[in-house]
Amino acid sequence: MPATQTRPLAVITGASSGIGHELAKVFAQNGFDLLINAEDDLTDAQRTLAGEGTAVEAVQADLSKPSGVEELYEGIQKAGRPVDALVLNAGIGEGGDFTRETDLGQELELIDLNVRSAVHLSKLVLPDMARRGQGRILFTSSIASTMPGTFQAVYNASKSFVQSFALAIRRELKDTGVTVTSLMPGPTETEFFARAHMKDTRVGSSSSKDDPAEVAQQGFDALMKGKERVVAGSLTNKLMAYGGRFVPERAKAEAHRLMAQPGSGRK
Q1: Is-contact 51 28, C-beta < 8 A?
Q2: Exposed end of the chain (fewer CB within 10 Å): N or C?
Q3: pLDDT digits over 71-110, tens only?
């Protein structure tokens, strides 16, 4: 990726599929070159994203490991260009009863990917943005961040961290020229529920999930406008996110149980 390029550069994690891949498409369509990352092979994604005038570089690295974050940052440095937009989208879920069902290794990997890697990569990229007085960061949070995650205890807690972290550093960066936006999707038609072992839940088996392309477009629009956050997708998501401020935590925890309890989606 030549350093003489005049197009802005977006770095997008978790870009092999789902919301991350759709975000990469939107950035490419809006004049950005891309540096994409995922643990999965990115050959197909790189080929489909590269279009007329769009340069796409790929760094396949597992961000749940510190070495993977460092590998991605080395790729950013090798590009020889400032990062105009950093999209911290990589994440995984895990459903089930925390005490009696779920796997500790998977949950620790979830924390490493959803939480630690977001902090680690932000710490590496943000100082240069602040020095330049220019840059945008988009965190993929979730409406899950607004409620206790019964049968998704660790996942919802991880997204609560991401949401709080994003809002805090946004305030710290006030008047620097760097903006931070959190994207808060609801249930979206991606591989998330299969990977999180939640296909048999009410939320996982629902046919009314949001379109990841629509979610990505809303996230991009909010980022470019410098908004603090955007609740993407359906009106239901917005009611859950904003109306939930007036609902007791125990009631939200029970509502989440009804959606995420294993077997709740079986007919």
Answers
A1: yes
A2: C
A3: 999 999 999 999 999 999 999 999 999 999 999 999 999 9
For residue 244, what pLDDT band results from cuts at 50, 70 and 90? Answer: confident
Interatomic CA distance for residues 238 and 220, integer angstroms: 18
Give how far Cα 211 sits from Cα of 24, 190, 232, 235, Å: 15, 9, 10, 13
SS3 content of the chain, % helix, strand, coil (to 5): 50, 15, 35
**Of 27, 155, 192, 193, which residue is the catalytic one?**
155
Q: In this predicted structure, what is the pLDDT of residue 4?
A: 46
- Could you read off the pLDDT of 97-144 as tens digits, one per residue? 999 999 999 999 999 999 999 999 999 999 999 999 999 999 999 999
The answer to pTM > 0.85 is yes
> If you count them, how many residues does the chain have?
267
Structure tokens at 108: 């620790």
Contact by Cβ (8 Å): 45, 61: no
> Using alpha carbons only, what angle is made at residue 55 by residues 51 and 56, rounded to the nearest 5 degrees?
95
Known catalytic membership, residue 242:
no
Asked whether the beta carbons of 88 and 165 are under 8 A apart, the reply is no
Q: Report whether 64 contacts 106 (CB < 8 A).
A: no
Q: How far apart are CA 37 and CA 58, in angstroms?
A: 6
